[in-house]
Amino acid sequence: MFDRLLPAIEDNIRSDNGMVPVVFAGLDHIMEKKVPMPEMSKHTTHELFYLRNGKVEFMIDGKKVSVDKGNALIIRPNTPHSAKIITPVADTIVLYFGFSKDRDHTGRSQPSLESFLDFAEGDEEASKEPYLIISGSNKKSISKLMERIVEENSGDLYAKDLMMQILTVELMITLSRALKSEWEESLRVRNGKARELVIIAKEYIDSNYDRGITVANAASYVYLSQGYFTRAFRDEFGISPMSYLMKKRIERACELLENKEIKVSGVAAQAGFSSPQRFNVAFRKQMGITPMEYRKEHSSDYEE
Predict the structure, then answer these.
(1) H/E element, 131
(2) What is the β-pairing status of strands 89-100 and 20-32?
């Protein structure tokens, strides 16, 4: 039964011209600043780069592009690019993907990104850029899918090829939704009034507080001065943007502290604090106790 079922499912995944989306390679690794990087490289496939932690500066077709924690970068085929690690280390996932007509992937084809990312309704000039950057609320969905693809590709489970195709289709749809969402939000920013802009900025904080962003970053995201943005945010939500940003980070830190497998320094980084020292000061100021004291009170295996 399975011998007949799997080819039937696979045929339904194929596009009208017989092409299927394929991930040709996947890497999950730590890049170190002290290790020399290639001066320039290019690939015959699309390259999807996701940064779990750290900061990387790319030079793509002669243009400098910064990628921060939580951002994804798509580089088009045959585009010259190089990478420079800005932080001591950068935790990354990289996928190389495209389309193929046959099961051994020798018949590769690389149509334009727009043909499978449904992003043609954006700015025509922007769509011709040699790269696309994705950030915002979809970043976690993208990273989880990439991790699943890398894990599946490294194993040898039953129906591996079909599962890889399904996961890749899901990744294409998720990327498409992310790009569409960011394009729609850019329209809201360009056409928005003050109240709408601070709401967008609050959504930006909600999606990116763990990336080490500042109030200045949130203000510039909606093209407002920091002073005006701070007043408008307080008027709308009854709290300053700095206090709200700190509140989001402390709430996340409290969740992480209940997992004793994560070190306090790791909690600080995952919650968006620049250092454990700053985290300790901010946590004690808001919660009245230290992170370790909170952990002892709230860990599931803690006994009085």
Answers:
(1) strand 131-134
(2) antiparallel
Residue ranges and CATH numbers for the domains of the chain are 2-185 (2.60.120.280), 194-298 (1.10.10.60)
Residue carrying the six token digits 């909600």: 206
For 225, counting Cβ atoms within 10 Å of its Cβ (0-12 exposed, 13-18 middle, 19+ buried), the class is: exposed
Is residue 73 classed as helix, strand or coil in its secondary structure? Answer: strand
pTM as predicted: 0.61
Condensed to tens digits (0 to 9), the pLDDT of residues 118-157 reads: 433 334 444 467 888 887 677 778 888 998 988 888 888 9
| Rounded distance between C-alpha atoms, residue 304 and residue 106, angstroms | 63
Query: In whole angstroms, what is the distance from residue 137 CA to residue 206 CA?
Result: 8
Looking at residue 39, its amino acid is: E
For the chain, state the CA radius of gyration. Answer: 22
Distance CA(301)–CA(38), nearest Å, equals: 48
